[in-house]
Write a structure and sequence with these properties.
mainly alpha, 3 helices
Length: 63
């Protein structure tokens, strides 16, 4: 197995740089929104809603 530990870090940094350059140049992110992960995609990847539901069950007062 070959590991490339910095590959994703370098890719993320390049993407972040592109977004920051667009913000600096244009004052908004519209030019790069199509390259960005949507909030829905992020939440699906993280399992956010399942985790939120689990927290609700764990901390509910039993009513």
């Amino acid at each position: 197995m070959v590991l490339y530990p910095l590959s994703t870090f370098r890719a993320a940094n390049k993407a972040a740089l592109e977004v920051m350059q667009a913000l600096l140049k244009d004052g908004h992110q519209r030019a790069v929104v199509g390259k960005m992960q949507t909030r829905t995609e992020l939440y699906q990847f993280l399992g956010y809603h399942d985790f939120e539901a689990k927290l609700d069950r764990l901390f509910s007062d039993g009513e």
